[in-house]
Design a protein that fits this description.
Two copies of one chain form a homodimer. Chain A is α+β, with helices and mostly antiparallel strands. In chain A, strands 6, 7, 8, 13, 14, 16, 17 and 22 form an eight-stranded mixed β-sheet that branches. In chain A, strand 1 and strand 2 form a beta hairpin. Chain A starts with about 30 loop residues before the first strand and ends with a strand. In chain A, about 55% of the residues are buried. The interface between A and B is large, with 64 and 64 residues.
Chain lengths: ~450, ~450
C-alpha cells in the first residue's frame, strides 16, 4: 500500500474530513462534470467538492503528460482518453492529485485554498464517466443464478455450465444513462401463464438489479487473449450499476437467445469511477468454493487472484416511494449485500471475455450481474427479494411492493471499510420510475 | 420509382455498363475507402471504380449541404454523419451522384472523363462503412430457427414465442471487421457429450452465418418508440454480414443468457451500404404466414409493410479451401437463398427493437439472423447445411467439410434482379480462417 492510502493523510478540502463522506483524499474517484452548460470536463471527487482537472492543468499543477490527457478528455467529453492511457497514467494521476489535495505536501500547500480549482458538487451536473463502446453483463453471483434459476426452472436451477463458465451476455450501450436520469417504464410483449396470446402493455414487473460495473482501461487487440495475471492492467476502476429489468417481458422473450428488450430500455451508472488503485486496501480472497465444486480452469486461475481477486465492497439498495417522498419519510433500506459473494472475480470476468480474442476497449463497461448473498435481505433485485412477487415488501407508509411502482426511486450505494484505513465510497446511482408513454 | 432507377440510365464510367457489375449507376452504394495510407474518405461504388465524394465536393460538384456532410465523414473516418443526417440527405446524395455520373445529364457531361473524381477499386482499401455503436443480431428466418431448434431441442424445436416476438440479442460491436480481415479461430470452453468437465481448446465447429445487415440512419431518442409506418425512415441501407460462430463453444455457454464468446471473436461486414432507395424496385411482400400462424401484433403490422416490407435479394455462400486455392479451383457454391424467406421484415425488426424505448443511433447495425430457406441448399450456415456435421460437404478437391478448416475462405454475395430494372449487387464479404493462436 502506498502513501495515498495512509490513514493520517488529510486534505486542505475540509469537507473531506467528514467521516461520513464517500470521498476522502484516500479515494479520489474520477468523473465528468459540467456547470452552467459548459462542456463536460474531467474531475476528481473530494469531500463535497470536485477537483477541476482542467483548472489544475491550466494552473500548471499537473505534469505535462497528464495535462495533455485531461485536455483530450474535455475534447472527447468523456474519460476515454485517460482510460485508454492505461493503469500507469491512472496511477500517476492519483499520486499527483493526492499530493495536490494534501494538507501537508509542498504541492498541497501551494494549492491550498485555491477555490478556483474546486467546484461544489451541488453546483455540478454529473455525466456518464465514459463513452461506452460495448456493455457486457455477467451473472457472477451464484446466489442470484440459483434463486432465479429455481423460479424459472425448478428442476434445473443452476445450469451445468455455471461453475465452469463465467456466464455473460452482450448488453445495450446506447441506453446507458447517468444517475438521476428518469427511467420510463417500458412497453413490451408479455404473456400470462395459460393465455393464448401475448399482450403489449407497460411492464407490470419492473425491477432493479444491484451490480458493480468494471471500466476497461487500456484494452487488448482483436485476437489477443488476456492472461489472468494481467487482467488487472485492463481494469480502470469500478462504479455502481443498476441494470433495470422488465421481468414480464424477460420471461416471454429470453429463450433461446437471452434477455433483450427486457433490459435495453435503460441501465443507470454512478458518476464516479473508483480506481482499482483506490480499492487496493480492500482486496480480499476470491469466493471460497465448496470442496465439491470444480476448481477454475487454468486460464481462469492464479494464486494471486485466489488470494486477492475479491473486493470487500458493501452494497445497499434504498427505495423511496412517491408517498414516502411526499410524507418526508427516509428512504427504506431494502437490502445490503457484499461484493465478496461473487463466484467469479472481476479479473476472471475480464480474462474470460477476452479468451476468444474479443477486443476490449477503454471505456467498455462490464456489469458483474446482480449481487446477491445467501440471506434474503442480501438479495440484489426485487424478483429475488420478494420471491417473484409472492412476498411483497412492506414500506413504512403501509404500501407494499412486489415490483416497482411509478414514482419509486431506487438508489444504490457502495462503500469499503477496513480497520486502519479510511472508509471510501462510490457515491450513488439513483433513478425514478416514470409512467409509460402513451 | 424515380429516374435514378431507369433501365436506360447510363454512366460515363464505362465499367458500369458491364452486365456483371454489382455497381451500375442504378445502385450507387456508399462506403469508406482509403489509398496510400491517406485517411479514409467517403465514396460511391460505380462499376470497377469509386466516386471520391471529397474530390467531388472540392470540385464544387455537390451541393453545399452535402459537401459539408461529406467533410464530416472524412473527419469521422466513417459514414456516421451522413447516416445521422437521415433519409432525406441520403436521397439527395443519390440524386446528385446519379446526375454527376450520368452520361446524359448536364452535370454528368461536365464531370465526364474527370479521372480525378475516380479511384480504381483495385487501388483502394475498403473500411467499415460506419462506426457501429451497437450491434444487434436477430433470428428472423423461421427455417433457421426451426432447423437449429430441432438439433438442440428435438421435442421443442420452434419455441412458443417465435411467431410473436422478433427474437434478437445484443451482439459485440468492437469485433466487427471489414471484408478481407483474417478470422482467427477462437479458443474457448466446450464440453463433449458425456464428459465430466469442459475442455479449453481451439473451436472444432467453426461456422459462418449468412445474414443481411441493416444500417440505422437518423435514429430515435431514448424513450421514443418507432411506428412501423415510420421504420423505413430509420433504415439507411443494407450490407452483407457474416456472423462467424463457434458452435461447440455456443452449445456449452448459451444457457441461460444466450450466445456470447461463440460470436464475439469476429463479425465481418461487406464494405458497401446499398441504400434503401436503391433497393426500392426490389421490394416485395412480407413473408406469407400460414393460415394457422398468428397475425403480427398491431405495433408490428401495417398494410404497407405486408405488401412491400420484403426485399427480393438473392444470397450466395461460396467456399474455397486452401487446397482449392492452391490448385486454382474456383470457389464452390455452398448455398443460395433468398431474403424473402425471412419471417420478419426489416421494418418489423426496427420497430420491435425500439418498442421499449431503446434508442437506435445512426451507424448501429442490425443483423437479420441467418438467412435460410426451406430447401437444404438454401441453408445459410454449415450447422444446418451439414446437419450438425452429419452430412459433410464434398469439395471439388475430394476434401470434405463438416465445419470450417484453417485456410478456408468464406465469401458471401448478394444481388437483386427484376425484369425492367438493372441488376444491382452488394459486392461481397469475405474472410479466411487462420489457425488459433498458441
Amino acid at each position: 500500500m502506498d502513501s495515498t492510502h495512509a490513514l493520517d493523510l488529510r486534505s486542505w478540502v475540509e469537507s473531506s474530513d467528514d467521516p461520513q463522506t464517500d470521498f476522502p483524499i484516500q479515494n479520489l474517484p474520477l468523473g465528468m462534470f459540467s456547470r452552467d452548460g459548459v462542456r463536460p470536463r474531467a474531475g476528481i471527487a473530494i469531500g463535497d467538492a470536485i477537483l477541476d482537472l482542467t483548472a489544475a492543468a491550466s494552473a500548471n499543477l499537473l505534469s505535462n503528460e497528464l495535462a495533455d490527457v485531461v485536455g483530450d478528455c474535455t475534447r472527447a467529453g468523456a474519460l476515454n482518453p485517460l482510460l485508454a492511457a492505461g493503469r500507469g497514467p491512472l496511477r500517476a494521476l492519483r499520486a499527483e492529485a493526492s499530493a495536490l489535495l494534501s494538507a501537508d505536501s509542498p504541492a498541497g500547500r501551494r494549492a491550498s485554498g485555491r477555490v478556483d480549482l474546486l467546484v461544489p458538487q451541488r453546483d455540478a451536473r454529473l455525466h456518464l464517466p465514459a463513452h461506452v463502446g460495448d456493455y457486457t453483463d455477467f451473472y457472477a453471483s451464484i446466489n442470484h443464478a440459483t434463486n432465479v434459476g429455481s423460479m424459472f426452472r425448478p428442476d434445473n436451477a443452476l445450469l451445468p455450465n455455471y461453475k465452469w463458465v463465467p456466464i455473460g451476455y452482450h448488453g445495450r450501450a446506447s441506453s446507458i444513462v447517468p444517475s438521476g436520469t428518469p427511467i420510463i417504464r417500458p412497453v413490451g410483449q408479455s404473456k400470462e401463464e395459460g393465455a393464448d396470446a401475448p399482450v403489449v402493455r407497460p411492464s407490470r414487473r419492473m425491477d432493479y438489479e444491484l451490480e458493480m460495473g468494471v471500466w476497461i482501461a487500456g484494452g487488448n487487440q482483436l485476437g489477443e487473449r488476456v492472461r489472468i495475471t494481467e487482467a488487472d492492467e485492463l481494469i480502470g476502476g469500478l462504479s455502481l450499476v443498476n441494470d433495470w429489468s422488465a421481468r414480464d417481458v424477460q420471461a416471454w422473450e429470453y429463450q433461446p437467445l437471452g434477455p433483450f428488450l427486457a433490459k435495453s430500455f435503460a441501465t443507470s451508472v454512478s458518476p464516479w469511477i473508483v480506481t482499482l488503485d483506490a480499492l487496493e486496501p480492500f482486496r480480499t480472497n476470491a469466493f471460497r468454493r465448496e470442496v465439491s465444486d470444480p476448481q477454475p480452469l487454468e486460464y481462469l486461475s492464479s494464486t494471486d487472484d485466489a488470494e486477492r481477486g475479491g473486493f470487500a465492497i458493501t452494497l445497499e439498495v434504498l427505495l423511496t416511494s412517491q408517498t414516502m417522498r411526499e410524507q418526508g419519510v427516509d428512504p427504506m433500506l431494502v437490502s445490503r449485500g457484499s461484493f465478496t459473494e461473487m463466484y467469479w472475480t472481476i479479473a476472471q470476468l475480464v480474462t474470460h471475455h477476452a479468451s476468444n480474442g474479443c477486443n476490449l476497449r477503454a471505456g467498455d463497461l462490464l456489469g458483474s450481474g446482480t449481487v446477491s448473498g445467501p440471506a434474503p435481505d442480501s438479495r440484489g433485485c426485487l424478483l429475488e427479494r420478494t420471491w417473484k412477487g409472492t412476498e411483497p415488501l412492506a414500506l413504512p407508509t403501509g404500501e407494499t411492493r412486489a415490483f416497482l411502482a411509478d414514482g419509486d426511486t431506487v438508489t444504490l450505494r457502495g462503500s469499503c471499510a477496513r480497520d486502519g484505513y479510511r472508509r471510501i465510497g462510490f457515491g450513488e446511482v439513483s433513478g425514478t420510475i416514470t409512467p409509460a408513454r402513451a
